[in-house]
Each structure stands twice: as structure tokens, then as C-alpha cells.
Specification:
There is one protein chain. The chain is of the alpha+beta class. The strands form six sheets. A three-stranded antiparallel beta sheet has the order 4-3-15. A three-stranded antiparallel beta sheet has the order 6-5-10. The longest helix has 28 residues. The protein starts with a helix and ends with a helix.
Length: 422
């Protein structure tokens, strides 16, 4: 028995299972899913479908390019932005190879395609995070120890032994999960929808490029040998096949005739099927179709509202996942004293937060109306408004207005007015 047979035998397989004809579990191990269309869907092959590419790119670029700042909670309950803290600098440049934007874009794409994204945290001698290195999800195995802590085994190519990291040293962005440990891959669960989209795209390419359905047939009066029939077919295909042969004038030898075959009605729904696949894949990724180029149902009145829903329902859950994980791993609790053999801790006063104000901006007219009301009713100053518009503060712009045509409720009940109350 050969080496291959022994390996397959240990796995309970035979030679009929190979890379050319693998069994379903082998496709799962390789990160691919065999679909009913005959198309094998993996994270890489899924990205060849324009709708998947557009959804992944839209979400990952949006998350990556949003500003993320570090804040410190003050004793008065307010927060002060600290752009010079070590963690703020780390978020801006997590490693010598990657900027913060590139790392967040990469890891968000990982979690969208694989269900999980990982980055190993490198710490200095005092336990402070000094570098974050993203790791390909397929090289990470997650398990639980007896002390109910997560451990991450990095099975990197070329290494005989895995590298084990504690949960405190791994930033793990997890998608929708059924066990709270590993996220579910959208690509794997949407494999049939994605496979149908790839199949429709491939069919369309073959239809126009290689005449996947015969446009008609040629009949001649005299009997042809097999060689003569094959010669006539190949000559016809070379001259009139594909897009380059469209609308050319045909010359048929020997009194031959050409009979055209019309396209059946069910195949006339090809374009409708492709449109539906765009909507279906947008649904899987929870993206408004108009944001990936499908404007069929978009109108001037609803497109702005859909864009706000995209921020609230599509982007915000990913930002919260990022914030929770960064705050948990980069800002550990602070020791405040001893209680017997235990150390009393308190939450760190520092935290990271994304700024989505720019995404929530309405059009100029709506913003102007909002600012006017905010200024008149006294909850925003001139400089508050200018900061939101990325304008420098002005002298005297920190004062707040108080409406003078209203009085406290108790004063109104007593039949008094503002002058009497004073």
C-alpha cells in the first residue's frame, strides 16, 4: 500500500477522494463549499462576483476610514480626547508594515468572508501593547481551557508546532456566532446564492463568447461524410462564432440552408435572474442595494434614508464589535488595592471610540436647519457647530443662548411670569 493509500485509509477514504474529485468535508477543510450549481464557492472565488466584492469593499472601507480616537473619562463625568496616548499611536500605526486604516480594512474583510478576524498583540516588558499583527483566519484554531479561558493556536505554514496565545493577547473580531467563540462565515452560509450568481455570470460569458446554445443548424442537400460535416462546422464556427462573427454575411456551399433557433422564453429571464442575485447577496451582507450599484428601486426621497439605515444597522454593529474588543484587550482593568490574596481592580479610565458623525451628516439644507434649532434652543454653541463642520473656533463662540419666551413650569402654574419670578 502506497503512502497516499495509507493517508486516505487513516482518514477513512479511498482513492476515489482526490483533489480533483474531493468529498464534501474536504471542500470544507479547504474553505470551499460545493454548491448545487456545480460551482465551488470559497472566500476567494466569492470575491470574483461583483456583488460580493462590492459588499465586502463597502463595509471594510467604511469601517477602516472612520476616525477612531482614544478618550479619558474625567472625574466630572466628561471625556477628554487623548491623541498622544500610547494606544492612540498604536491604533494609528499598529505595526511597521500596516497603518491603522489598512489593518482595519484587512480584518473587517476577513470577518466578512471567514466569520472571524484575528490580530496577535505584541507587548513590551511591562505588558503594554506595542504592536498588532493580523493573522489569516485559516491559520487560527480556537479552543477553551479547563479554566474557561480561550486560547488561540496559530498554525502557520512552515512551523512544525503551533504558537499558542492567551485570549488577552489576541484581538478577535467575531461575526454572528452560535457558540460565542467562533463566528459564522457569510460566504459559507450564502454559498448557494453566491454559486448561483457565479453560475449565471459564467453562463452569460459562455453564451456570448462561445455560443453555449446553438444559434441554428445548417442543412445541405447532399450527404456528407463525418469529416466533411466536421470541416463545415469548424469553418462556420471560426468565421461566425462568438461576438466577432456577429452580423457577418454567410455563404453556404452546395445549396445549404441555415435555420435559426430562437431563444426560449425561460432563457429570456436571464437578466432578471442576475438582478435578483445582486439583491439576494446584498441581503446576506445587510447592505442597501443602491450602495453596490443597483439603483432600480432607489428614489430621491428614500436614498438618503437608506444611507442612514446603512450606518445604523450595517456599520454600527461592526464598530461596536471593534470598540468592545479593543477596549477589552488594550485597556486592561487598573489595580486599586488588595483584598486578602486578591487584587481589587477598576475599569480603565481610557477607551477607544469611532466617530461616525461624518457618515450621519444630512444634506446642507437639513444640517443648516438642525444647527439653527440647536443654536436657538441653547444646546449648541457657535464653536460646537464649527467643530462639526471642521472649522476653527472663533473668539466668543463658546457661549450658549437661553430662550426668553419660556419660564419654569412651577412659575407658570402660579400664574407668574419671568419678571415676577426674578
Amino acid at each position: 500500500m502506497g503512502v497516499l493509500d495509507r493517508m486516505l485509509g487513516a482518514l477513512g477514504l479511498s482513492r476515489r477522494s482526490s483533489l480533483a474529485t474531493p468529498e464534501p468535508w474536504m471542500w470544507e477543510a479547504m474553505g470551499a463549499v460545493r454548491t448545487g450549481t456545480g460551482v465551488d464557492v470559497s472566500p476567494h472565488s466569492a470575491m470574483r462576483l461583483s456583488a460580493v466584492w462590492a459588499c465586502v469593499r463597502l463595509i471594510s472601507e467604511t469601517v477602516a476610514t472612520l476616525p477612531v480616537h482614544v478618550y479619558e473619562r474625567q472625574s466630572d463625568g466628561l471625556s477628554k480626547r487623548d491623541d498622544g496616548s500610547p494606544v492612540a499611536l498604536l491604533l494609528a500605526q499598529p505595526s511597521p508594515m500596516l497603518t491603522g486604516v489598512r489593518m482595519r480594512e484587512l480584518m473587517t474583510a476577513h470577518v466578512l468572508l471567514h466569520g472571524n478576524a484575528y490580530a496577535a498583540i505584541i507587548r513590551n516588558g511591562v505588558g503594554q501593547a506595542v504592536e498588532m499583527v493580523p493573522v489569516q483566519p485559516q491559520f487560527v484554531r480556537v479552543s477553551i481551557t479547563e479554566t474557561r479561558r480561550l486560547v488561540y493556536d496559530l498554525v502557520l505554514p512552515g512551523n512544525n508546532l503551533p504558537i499558542r496565545l492567551d485570549q488577552a493577547d489576541v484581538v478577535h473580531i467575531c461575526g454572528l456566532s452560535l457558540d460565542g467563540i467562533r463566528g459564522l462565515s457569510v460566504v459559507r452560509y450564502a454559498a448557494q446564492s453566491i454559486g448561483l450568481g457565479i453560475a449565471a455570470e459564467t453562463y452569460g460569458a459562455n453564451f456570448f463568447g462561445n455560443a453555449s446554445q446553438p444559434a441554428g443548424f445548417i442543412s445541405v442537400q447532399e450527404k456528407l461524410t463525418k469529416e466533411q460535416a466536421e470541416l463545415l462546422r469548424s469553418q462556420w464556427q471560426s468565421i461566425y462564432g462568438g461576438l466577432g462573427g456577429a452580423h457577418k454575411t454567410a455563404v453556404l456551399p452546395g445549396g445549404g440552408t441555415f435555420t435559426k433557433i430562437s431563444i426560449p422564453n425561460n432563457e429570456a429571464q436571464f437578466l432578471e435572474s442576475r438582478k435578483f442575485q445582486i439583491t439576494d447577496i446584498a441581503r446576506w451582507f445587510r447592505v442597501p442595494p443602491h450602495m453596490i450599484g443597483d439603483l432600480e428601486r432607489a428614489t430621491f426621497s428614500n436614498i438618503e434614508h437608506q444611507s442612514l439605515e446603512f450606518v445604523q444597522h450595517s456599520i454600527r454593529p461592526w464598530l461596536v464589535r471593534w470598540e468592545n474588543e479593543l477596549n477589552r484587550k488594550l485597556f486592561p482593568p487598573v489595580a486599586i488595592g488588595l483584598r486578602g490574596n486578591d487584587v481589587d481592580t477598576a475599569p480603565s479610565p481610557y477607551y477607544a471610540e469611532f466617530n461616525v458623525e461624518g457618515l450621519l451628516r444630512a444634506d446642507q439644507k437639513s444640517r443648516s436647519e438642525y444647527y439653527v434649532k440647536a443654536r436657538q434652543w441653547g444646546w449648541m454653541s457657535v464653536n460646537d457647530i464649527r467643530r462639526l463642520e471642521n472649522m476653527p473656533p472663533v473668539e466668543g463662540g463658546d457661549t450658549y443662548l437661553t430662550p426668553l419666551n419660556m419660564v419654569p413650569t412651577a412659575t407658570a402654574d402660579d400664574g407668574g411670569d419671568l419678571e415676577k419670578s426674578e
